[in-house]
Predict the 3D structure of the following.
Amino acid sequence: MLRNIPKIIVTADSDSGIGIDECAELSRELSKLVEESQLVENYEIEVSSPGVGEPLVLERQYVKNIGRMVKVVVNDGRTLKGKLIEVVQNQYIAIEEKIKIKGKKEQDTIIHQIQFSDIKKTSVEVSFN
């Protein structure tokens, strides 16, 4: 007979990053709290730091990723890709998109300023260059 065991999933982040030691400590502290509450007998706790594919949610996450390639889906459905070059507090982000010019080797550069209120989802693009 299969039993459903409650699972607590925690994703922890900080400006300086979260390592395995911090995740382990957080897991121990959470375990103590759950046991003291006596709400459940059996449970699982999973503590991790955000993975590469996790979307950016907080403004500080954008600041931390200035200079990296991002993919931004805006509320009107468009997807913009480029280097995150600026974050203006409580206002917008700016990304630099390189566009190939047809029949030429050089590229055009377009700067997109995207209001935070217009962003549906932003993720960091993994680059192997």
In short: Residues 59-124 form a domain with the SH3 type barrels. fold (CATH 2.30.30.100). The longest strand covers residues 79-88.
